[in-house]
Amino acid sequence: MVDLLDVDHLGIGIARGDSTVSLVEDVSFTIRAGESYGIVGESGCGKSTTIRAIIRLLTGKARITQGSVRFDGVDLAQAKESALQSVRGAGIGMVFQDPLTALNPVITVGQQIAEGLRYHGVRSAPERRARMLEAMRLVGLPDPARIAASYPHELSGGQRQRAAIAIALIASPRLLLADEPTTALDVTIQAQILRLLTDLRSRLGMALVLVTHDLGVVAQTCDRVAVMYSGRIVEEAPIRRIFEAPRHPYTVALLNSIPRGTRAGHPLHPIAGMPPDPAQRPPGCSFAPRCPNRQEDCEVSAPGWTQDAGGGGFACFHPALATAEATHG
Amino acid sequence: MKHWPRNLKLGLGLMLGWILVAIFGPMLLPGDPTTMDLMHSLHPPSLAFPFGTDNLGRGVFTRVIYGSRIDLQIALFCVVPAFVIGTTVGMAAGYFGKLTDAISMRLVDIAVAFPFFVAVIAIVAVLGPGLKNMYIAVAAVGWVSYARITRAEILVVKQADYVQAARLLGFGNTRILARHILPNVIVQAAVYATSDAVLDIFLGSSLGWLGLGAQPPLPEWGLIIADGYSFVSQAPWISGFPGLAIVLLAISLSLLGDGLADALRPELGRA
Amino acid sequence: MAEQPLLSVIGLDKYFLLRRSLVAGLMGQPQRRVQAARDVSFAIGRGESFGLVGESGCGKTTLGRLVLGLLSVDDGAIRFEGQDITKADPASRRALRRQMQMVFQDPYSSLNPRMRIGRAIAEPLRLHGIVPADQVEREVARLLERVGLPASAANRYPSELSGGQRQRVGIARALSVRPKLLVADEAVSGLDVSVRAQVLNLLDDLRRDLDLTLLFISHDLGVIEYLCETVGVMYLGTMVENGPTSAVFAQPAHPYTRALLASIPRADPTALRGDETPLAGEPPSPVDPPSGCPFRTRCPDAQAICETPPPRVTLPGGRWAACHFAVETMNAPIQ
């Protein structure tokens, strides 16, 4: 398979006073055409910042400070705004966490879905409408003609997220970025939306990058996954390997924090403490202060990337054993 | 607090300066603001008369300094009663709701039906000119804004989980209002008060100018401006310097208000 | 249960009136209302942890607030230690209320931003004279340490603490008045995975050590399974199933419980993906609920009889489910 997106040593910082606080450091990953890639981590780990940086939708004063984001051979990190505009929509679509704020409240849903086609060369209004209704059917919106004439507040949360997905899909992107797309939804609706994303991916041959804090969502949706902690990717692996044989102690700890039954049967072992403030990361490994495997070298320098046999890797001097039994459960 | 916003420090500094001027200025000045000296009328600014003299030979500098007492007093006496009445009504309306709310909000509707200045002028006209009647008029009309601001804030804070928690912990209404709600809603009203004070100073000066506020020979800034009005082309300093004083006091209050808003906001925010 | 339950809720009804314009009222349009709780009954034994689960708008939060007396009851009874709170006189209601405390969802809005942590916890101690005045400080330190915070946290303002730490402060404050029942409404939903696990274990430890009874309200079935011995499943203002968590989760007897369990994204990539079709559609509006069984519009097994109100079918093991086909559903195999 071909690499569709190649994020290389990406760094993102935010100016605070005279200095720059780095939000994301040295993040590299590649997305192949048609694959589904998950980025998991807790709030503040930089996962949303990373995905937004891909299409340069960074908010506030955050800036890409180093590295490149190659999509189809074009470096989006350096690209001009005009070049970005043609990539957004037709090349890369994005779905956000809160569909209510992602939609314009005073424009009908139909117009918002069709609008993207204007910028991608569809001049005829009837054709735009036809493609809009088709996109709405594709995302499973019932009675498209009626919903097209509705305003966002008239729809339910699940319908809004479907409409937002239709907007992202209208210009047939090859990559869909989804930032916590189901976090604001109820479980049964979440199941519907996840199913929809998976179906669309296989039907349209589109790649998906899904950012979430929920390991369950990743397990059900993604082929490969990256775990982020304090601005860095600490582990990356095919989905089964992450759950069956996590190597980085943070991944292990994260897996041990999700309830999987009763306390008597599967007691949770929470990670003590909290992630560091990005402005005051410890000199060595950021996870060292909370890490059960910590040794002296962890506090001296940040561990480099260790490739593992199964097509993944991790950034740790003292990883968990590679056997499935030695980890959680 | 170590990290006070710059505008708060500046605003506080300037206001402190004004208060010191108002208290000690008149004690240190040799002259008297009302003694006429026709020998020295319409003198331009000089060493002896830093702001010049007016048509009756009174030092404008002396008058402006004495006037600071009156204008600061106007700001204080206009704002405080309106603030106290308004926040009390707003708190009662917002917290207890129902009938209390309905009655007080109808009162507010009546009060806002008249334009502020027109209402104040009408009341002063009925009661008779003078500062005391102006204070009464401003209190009668000005509380409305405070009531609205406070009520709106209360409606939000009342729903906050910490207020629900206080109720569950068995605290009485008085305690919940005084300890848990008031400190969180008073900020908005206090910030508004600083801009209201600016308005009231302008109002005091305008009424003085119209002859409805402070009465001559009081060295109220608006009155001084009115005195100099006829001589504006010959002796612009008579109206100019008190005008400058008003602007400077207004800026001080605005800075204080902005600074207060900045200083109190982060605490409300999410760290 | 042979012993009298600590809390029993019997046939509880709660309506919220929808805003009606003055003109509509004068025109004689009927007042529209939302039924947030319809004939809800359940009991919680002393020291038990009861999980109330359901999706947004199902009425679980309203139910918690009704129990705590933050909302008034329209019909039905809430008995706390045998005494009906809804009929108690104001003074004894206040005393009863203090024995029930709440842990809130949003750790940011549950603490007064202008009050130091120490003062927030000391306030109820002083007001109710729970410890002698000279021991208040020591008690505050003890409470903070009990919830896993250093005693020095007393000097901090809420804005200086993280979400997890604030949630601990909220728990310490609730414990200050020595309650018997703790109502936790989505108390871990706003927290990150690792912090959530800390707070879950804390709540469970406190329950065991202090002999607390816990009413834990959550949309998260995994959390309920971890923490609660008994579960009540809510849908559209009604309780559709109630029983021991392990039995209910192993063999759900209501199609909604079944669908809910099937919808959880399991943190296990080997679990078959998407084998069971997700529940179609969305919950109907509570203003205009379906006749008969509220779930019938989305239920994969709905039949004509479901248009009549479902019976409360008693099942073995102290369970019940409000479904015409409860026994069949319970015995159907799960993929």
From TrEMBL, chain A:
Topology in membrane: Peripheral membrane protein
Query: Which biological processes are named by the entry's GO terms?
Result: peptide transport; transmembrane transport
- Top-rank taxon: Bacteria
What SMART domains does this protein map onto?
A: AAA (SM00382)
Record InterPro entries: AAA+_ATPase (IPR003593), ABC_Ni/Peptide_Import (IPR050388), ABC_transporter-like_ATP-bd (IPR003439), ABC_transporter-like_CS (IPR017871), Oligopep_ABC_C (IPR013563), P-loop_NTPase (IPR027417)
Q: SUPFAM superfamilies per the record?
A: P-loop containing nucleoside triphosphate hydrolases
KW Membrane (keyword) present: yes
Q: Which GO terms describe its molecular function?
A: ATP binding; ATP hydrolysis activity
List each copy of the ABC transporter domain by range: 2-255
Q: Where in the cell is it found?
A: Cell inner membrane
Can you name a GO cellular component term?
A: plasma membrane
* Matches recorded under CDD domains: ABC_NikE_OppD_transporters
Q: What is its main location?
A: membrane
Q: Which UniProt keywords apply?
A: ATP-binding, Cell membrane, Membrane, Nucleotide-binding, Transport
What protein family is recorded?
Answer: Belongs to the ABC transporter superfamily.
Identify this protein by name: ABC transporter ATP-binding protein
UniProtKB/TrEMBL annotation, chain B:
Gene3D superfamilies listed in its UniProt record: MetI-like
Answer yes or no on keyword DNA-binding.
no
Which locations, inside or outside the cell, does it occupy?
Cell membrane
**What is the membrane topology noted in the UniProt record heading this document?**
Multi-pass membrane protein
The record's InterPro entries line, in alphabetical order, gives: BP-dependent_transpt_permease, MetI-like, MetI-like_sf
Q: Which CDD domains match?
A: TM_PBP2
Keywords for this protein = Cell membrane, Membrane, Peptide transport, Protein transport, Transmembrane, Transmembrane helix, Transport
Source species, domain of life: Bacteria
GO (cellular component) term, any one: plasma membrane
Question: Quick check: keyword Nucleotidyltransferase in the entry?
Answer: no
GO BP term, pick one: peptide transport
What transmembrane ranges does the database entry give?
Answer: 12-29, 74-95, 107-127, 237-256
Pfam families on file: BPD_transp_1 (PF00528)
Please state which protein family the record places this protein in: Belongs to the binding-protein-dependent transport system permease family.
Query: Do you know which PANTHER family this protein is assigned to?
Result: D,D-DIPEPTIDE TRANSPORT SYSTEM PERMEASE PROTEIN DDPC-RELATED (PTHR43386:SF1), OLIGOPEPTIDE TRANSPORT SYSTEM PERMEASE PROTEIN APPC (PTHR43386)
From the Swiss-Prot or TrEMBL record, give the protein name: ABC transporter permease
| Record organism | Acidisoma cellulosilyticum
The organism that produces this protein has a lineage beginning with: Bacteria, Pseudomonadati, Pseudomonadota, Alphaproteobacteria, Acetobacterales
UniProtKB/TrEMBL annotation, chain C:
Tell me one GO molecular function of this protein: ATP hydrolysis activity
| Residues of the ABC transporter domain | 18-261
Cellular component, GO annotation: plasma membrane
Per UniProt, the keywords (alphabetical) are: ATP-binding, Cell inner membrane, Cell membrane, Hydrolase, Membrane, Nucleotide-binding, Repeat, Translocase, Transport
**Chain residue ranges for the region called Disordered:** 271-293
Where is the secretion signal located? Answer: none
Record field: compositional bias (Pro residues): 281-292
Q: What is its EC number?
A: 7.4.2.10
Q: Which Pfam families has this protein been placed in?
A: ABC_tran, oligo_HPY
GO biological process terms on file: peptide transport; transmembrane transport
Query: This protein's superkingdom?
Result: Bacteria
According to its UniProt record, which reaction does this protein catalyse? glutathione(out) + ATP + H2O = glutathione(in) + ADP + phosphate + H(+)
The record's section on PROSITE patterns has:
ABC_TRANSPORTER_1, ABC_TRANSPORTER_2
Location of the protein in the cell: Cell inner membrane
Predominant localisation class: membrane
**Which SUPFAM superfamilies does the record match to this protein?**
P-loop containing nucleoside triphosphate hydrolases (SSF52540)
> Membrane topology for this entry?
Peripheral membrane protein
The answer to whether keyword Membrane applies is yes
Q: Relate the assembly described in the record.
A: The complex is composed of two ATP-binding proteins (GsiA), two transmembrane proteins (GsiC and GsiD) and a solute-binding protein (GsiB).
Annotated NCBIfam families: oligo_HPY
Q: Main role?
A: Part of the ABC transporter complex GsiABCD involved in glutathione import. Responsible for energy coupling to the transport system.
Q: Which family does it belong to?
A: Belongs to the ABC transporter superfamily. Glutathione importer (TC 3.A.1.5.11) family.
Q: What is this protein called?
A: Glutathione import ATP-binding protein GsiA
Q: Which organism is it from?
A: Acidisoma cellulosilyticum
The major lineage groups are: Bacteria, Pseudomonadati, Pseudomonadota, Alphaproteobacteria, Acetobacterales
